[in-house]
Amino acid sequence: MHAVVLLKQILDWELPPRKFRIDQETKRPPDGLAPTLLGPFEQNALELAIQLKEGGVVDRVTALLAGPQGAADALRKALAVRCDDAAHIVVEAPELHDPSQTAELLLAAIRRLDAPELVLAGRQAGDWDHGQVGHLVAERLRWPVLGLVWQVERNDGRLLAWRSGVSGSEQFAVRLPAVMTVTSHSSLRLRMGNVMDLMAANRKPITTWTPQELGLGPEELAAAGRLELADVWVPEVERHCELIEAEDPAEAVAALLDRLGELKLLERLA
Amino acid sequence: MIVAATWESGGLGQAGREVLGAAVRLGATLGDDVAFAALGTAAADAAAEAGGYGAARAFALEGDYAASGAEGAIAALAELARELGGRAVLLAADEQGGEIGPRLAERLSGTAVTHATDVEVADGRLLWTRPVFGGKAFAAVEALVEPVVATLRRGAFSSAETMGGAAAVETRQVPVTDGAVEFIGSEAPQTGVALEDAAVIVAGGGGLGSREAFAELEELAGLLGGAVGASLVAVDSGWAAPERQVGLTGKVVSPDLYFAIGISGASQHLAGIGGAKAVVAVNTDPDAPIFTAARLGVVMDWKRFLPVLIDELRRAAP
Amino acid sequence: MNDVLAAEATREVQWEVTTAMVVVMYASMGIALLVFAYGVWRLLRVWRLGRRAVVWDRFAARLRRMLAAIAQATVLRRRLPGFMHALIFYGWWVLFAATCVVFIDHDLGLRIMQGTFYLVFQSLIVDLFGALVLLGLGIAFYRRYVLRPPQLEHREPADALLLGSIFLIVLTGFGLEGIRIAATDDLWANWSPIGAVTSLSLGRLANDAALTRAYSWLWLTHMLLWHVLLAALPFTKFIHVFTSPLNVFFSDPGPARGVVEPTDFTAEDVRLGINAPADMTWRQLFSLDACTECGRCETACPAYAAGKPLSPKRVILDLRDGIRAAGANAGPLAGGVIAPEALWACTTCRACEEVCPVAIEHVPLIVGMRQNLAMEQASVPARVGEMMANLEAREHPFRGASSGRTDWMEGLPVQELDSIEEAGDLDVVYWIGCAAAFDERAQQIARALVSVLLHAGVRFAVLASKERCNGDPARRTGNEYHYDMLARSNVQTLGGAGVTRILTHCPHCLQQLRHEYRAFGGHYEVVHHSEFVSSLIEQGRVRLAPGARERVTFHDPCYLGRYNDVFDAPRRVLDVLPVERVEMPRSRRESFCCGAGGGHAFYEDDDDGEKINGIRAREAVATGATTVVTGCPFCLTMLESGARAVTTEQQPLRVRDFVELVADALDGEEPGHA
Predict the structure, then answer these.
(1) For chain B, does the N or the C end have fewer beta carbons within 10 angstroms?
(2) Does C661 reach chain A within 8 Å, measured CB to CB?
(3) What pLDDT digit, counting tens, does each position of B241-250 carry?
């Protein structure tokens, strides 16, 4: 079975809030504010894809990414952990705000890949946090989709998947072909590639498309648009934190409980 | 018509009232009526209450929708929304809403707006506010195509108010779907209070260091009648179950009191506790971002602080 | 006795030794030498599996070190075993010289074995040293089998047999001497006191005739024992008599220490660390056979002391035995013959190398195997993987840091250079490093140093945002590929050469910039802030105000002391401050690691048990000091963490960088010159 894993490079999500800025003109963070990295949930999806390949559930994995030229680093990383192929739809970032447009681009590419039966995506991209692309791709492919998955096994013609539900973990059986969005889990930490694979990955060819080549010129993309970004702003944070000064724990506990009682946040237990 | 939908298990709960409240207020501004749809095991009970909160119509969508994952729910809501000519469908932004939202929008050939924290009407246009970049910023977005299916953040919209009035419960059947997705089973649900509903939460983060450390949090939570939460770091390290995760990609909570133990306060975590009335942070690092969100802070190693706190509470308890 | 007789003093060589016995002697010696040669050939076969290595450069330094080791200087660093070994060693040489004298006199015909020389040397001195050998062996037995220090084997039969054989050889030697003296009524008996005493005791046991008969058997025994020992030499650790001094010669004479051999990633067949004997150099393979199993490395190892599964001694011996057993196919070494937990527990502190009397270099072997684990097997502890991911993405190892590279200097009048070309007029370029940028506690070191620099009127600037991690955490955890990228880009930023002096407060940056970047074309004059501040004080550019005296102790960072020989500079600085400075038992060259090296500042081993930093903090508290002073940001944070674990309200322990004490004691805020 051929699996496609959808990747995205985003602005370093560990950038501290007080350093975060939005350029009012572009309505986006300014270039160079922080490094761009393969997103955390995309890393989980990639790790799951490779685990499935190692487990024999899939036999081929293609990494697919829509993004600017520099985002190819993420595809090199995917190749370094033993993805078989990589494909890059070269678009500048502003075109990727709208999840519907992103989904169209990815769909156009998926349809050109060699009969994939499983598409894995991160549950949401850490920049715009829509969490829609995976589901839109599934709907437009008319494939079943399961969200927030963190473990997958093969069971005859279906996949058995564990996912995070409202009140706990749930197991579903999903018919192929299918889409799954992947959430973080301690078992899905992206592995290190070994150096031989890293070096080989730098030499492997990556299939590259422009949106036009996929049949999605500016008009077609505009037609696929659903969301317009009106404004982006960084909220003012006015918080006052009162620090309990104390030398030893007993003093600190007493002071804290007193203060909580005074602020009526906790019934002062007799 | 504005449609508000919920799938709680115990009748119309807090989540449902928030979605309904948002729908009623939005409906009032736009001059639209509100239809309420309930899924789940107590659908009829939830639907019965809806009229009292301002819903013009109330629907109980019955049938084992959970067996097919979100398939049945999506199909049922799509049918209903089409029938009612819904301009907007409002849902809770939980795990289920995350799946239903975008796909329902697609079925209705509309637009999905996820994790909305506010909605404004300007010149008849709906402007939705939603957090972006892990909660470090907010974006205002407008749907280019209606209907809009919006998932609403828990605690961001105020509850519906009782208005008197009633709406007769209309029952519909959840359609049988093709079985492409089949529910097999679930892990035993966590005992204790659900995080979103807890009034007190004791949460542990990277500073805890082990699963055993969380046992102390359990004890503290028990003494305070609260629930135990965890940061992404703690969950990813395997010290706490994923359902316990509080944060942008976990549960968004709004307790009266939130204890952040050994949590540094990454923005995605702070995004999950924005609704907390008061945060008490315990951390050895006085510059940890958690203190910007805390009301009270103790700069101390939780290993020294917590046992003393637990002792003191135990002593004071009857 | 009169002079005429004295001039003729001598003894008969091979008294009562028949021709047959002599033939047997030469025959058995021949066999022994053949067996010896075979044994050496087997060893050579293993050594030849290794790669080329350069061992003839810095000849004088190598020779000096070897001669010092042969003179027992390194062994004597531990008194009891050193004394014991010196007795055996020097005694053995004297006995051997005596045998040579016999050979020269008897076989070569040069009659030197007579007269005063015979009396004073061949009789008296030889007897005494023979006795000293017995004393030394006695101590050895006592130490190994009665005192039983944990780092020595007690169950290895070869050890007992070796000691026993030498003991018997010397004993039988005295027996032979005693019999001869008794049976020949030797005039000069008193010049061989032991022999004389022996002869008297033997004389009581049997008559001359019986003794003479016994003599032959004793002679054969004495001779055969020696030949067996000779033959067994290359099959036991006793081969160290040859391999150990040679290993001291072959080992790196410095001055740079611990520099990791770079990997050529452009090579056809890239070698990714050590996983088979062919990956080691021949002198690394040779060094395995220089080990005397003394266990000093194990005793000095901080990881071992903290109960971790690492014993440097076992690393060497397991490698040696594994390779001897399987030859070229031995392996996998990394993670197989040597367990991964052992490899990851190492802090690369080099205490093992420091105390090794035969100059074995343990750390390059460990790092070499880590390289294979990391680069070929892609198997590293989870946190190391996270650190590497952070290093790759953000170019620093401090995962989750919420500052940038210039936050520490906010509000300070520090100039940031746009490029190294602007550094022309400056006294120094201050290299901040990652700790002071991203760790809140370490930022205080940089701020303190800046206040001292400003006070002393030093013209300096920083590169700050142009810096990348020096690469040490990547290199020491075996991630040489990523290290290579970081090193090259830093060398590009700093330029190849001709840069003004570089000042750093971090010994790891010091090691990299001063030594390890040379392989990438970076040749810099680098100075540690202790050396720099010490010289500022000597130049009178720092005015210090008096203050309350406090008892402090200095913790020598491994990468500052053992790696870079800087011990005195920080102590000189402390001695001009109002402090009472005491030393910990393990200080200077034998400082006990804080536990942060080898990447450990960024990952914990997966075990419980006392941490290394706790052990060291306890040692500091035991001196009565209330503050432990150090010169490394990682030692600082590690020891603070250790102090939190072991100290109480009654016995607190502050941890500070020495420059913070200087900054506190500065008299006046304005920058000035003395």
Answers:
(1) C
(2) no
(3) 888 889 867 7
